[in-house]
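hiii so um. not sure if this is the right channel but i have a protein structure encoded as tokens and i wanna go backwards to a sequence. like what aa goes where. can anyone help
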């Protein structure tokens, strides 16, 4: 249950929380890569949501000044950054160090996930499965289909899908390159993090260490917010142990929020430039209460079923979705925009396309000729 703060705790309204979170997420102003290199940004953000290949590149393009997609691709090719299932049982792009520590941290959640498939694993020796799966993927990277087929030889009566889930839950399986590289294609092939990175997994960090890092990237936040981000439970004790070194606030619903004393909490009226975000951006997934970014009347508008739309922010809040229609980038606002907001949003879209070459084509002849084809669609209802 979410703990209510005392009435004497300072109040942080939605705009105050919005500006604080945008500042932590590097979305209030772009940080120069000379000041914060790409691997440092990935570390600060505790990873980037990466169900698809391109979202991490869009996420960094919206946060870093001077970012080029080759910078992230190079880190992946050099095995300094990897793609692996971690928080909320979803794929994230992490630094090698975080891959080896955050994956053990969320192992309890992977064990709970595995329990959902126990009916398909009757008679399966999970220790033997882990040993065999490790041997298979460390011999050579395997697709999940190849891994399932090999495991079925040992357990022909088991559910193939459950066998794959068991391997993914029990082993830290990373996606090997060229998967994830900008402008390259490649199917998902897996090996263990230890084999890919050439070093053993580290022990899970103390929860307090990760609480501090979460607040630095997503705070101010409640215990439930962090539990939502991590897909874990029972984190209140870690917050309570840290209480003497943290500051506390309350939101408009009276929920207690924790924060680092020296973390940025800008004036609520600080200008927030428009930003184009990828589908599944961390900003929209890492709090139990997302009203700091998503206005109440737009709740659920960035999703359809299990699919997330690419979104854009205006004045710091969710304001619409965007997509490609052929070479054109189409902006579909949820709200009426002023002429100035539309101009600024188009400028931001152009900047995004310049940063990520090949994602939009210019009108006109010759390389670099003309302007990008950016259009406004019908205001979505």
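sure thing!! here u go:
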């Amino acid at each position: 249950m979410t703990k209510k703060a005392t009435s004497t705790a300072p109040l942080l309204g939605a705009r105050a929380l919005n500006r604080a979170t945008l500042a932590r997420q590097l979305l209030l102003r772009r940080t120069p890569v000379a000041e914060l290199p790409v691997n440092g940004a990935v570390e600060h953000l505790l990873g980037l949501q990466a169900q698809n290949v391109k979202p991490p590149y869009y996420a960094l393009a919206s946060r870093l000044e001077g970012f080029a997609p080759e910078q992230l691709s190079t880190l992946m090719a050099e095995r300094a950054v990897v793609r692996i299932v971690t928080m909320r049982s979803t794929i994230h792009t992490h630094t090698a160090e975080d891959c080896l520590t955050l994956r053990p941290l969320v192992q309890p959640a992977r064990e709970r996930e595995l329990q959902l498939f126990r009916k398909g694993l009757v008679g399966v020796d999970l220790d033997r499965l882990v040993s065999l799966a490790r041997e298979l993927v460390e011999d050579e990277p395997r697709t999940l289909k190849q891994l399932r087929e090999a495991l079925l030889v040992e357990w022909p009566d088991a559910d193939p899908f459950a066998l794959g889930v068991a391997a993914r839950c029990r082993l830290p399986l990373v996606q090997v390159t060229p998967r994830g590289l900008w402008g390259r294609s490649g199917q998902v092939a897996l090996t263990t993090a230890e084999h890919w990175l050439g070093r053993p997994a580290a022990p899970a960090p103390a929860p307090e260490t990760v609480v501090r890092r979460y607040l630095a990237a997503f705070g101010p936040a409640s215990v439930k917010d962090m539990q939502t981000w991590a897909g874990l439970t029972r984190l209140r004790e870690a917050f309570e142990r840290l209480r003497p070194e943290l500051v506390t606030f309350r939101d408009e619903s009276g929920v207690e929020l924790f924060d680092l004393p020296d973390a940025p909490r800008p004036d609520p009226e600080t200008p927030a430039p428009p930003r184009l975000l990828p589908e599944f951006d961390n900003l929209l997934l890492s709090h139990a209460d997302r009203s700091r970014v998503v206005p109440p009347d737009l709740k659920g508008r960035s999703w359809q079923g299990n699919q997330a739309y690419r979104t854009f922010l205006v004045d710091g809040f969710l304001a619409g979705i965007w997509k490609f229609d052929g070479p054109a980038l189409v902006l579909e606002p949820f709200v009426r925009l002023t002429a100035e907001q539309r101009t600024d949003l188009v400028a931001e879209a152009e900047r995004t396309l310049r940063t990520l070459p090949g994602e939009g084509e210019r009108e006109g002849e010759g390389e670099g000729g003309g302007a990008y084809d950016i259009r406004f669609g019908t205001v979505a209802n």
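oh and Residues 364-369 have pLDDT under 50 and may be disordered.
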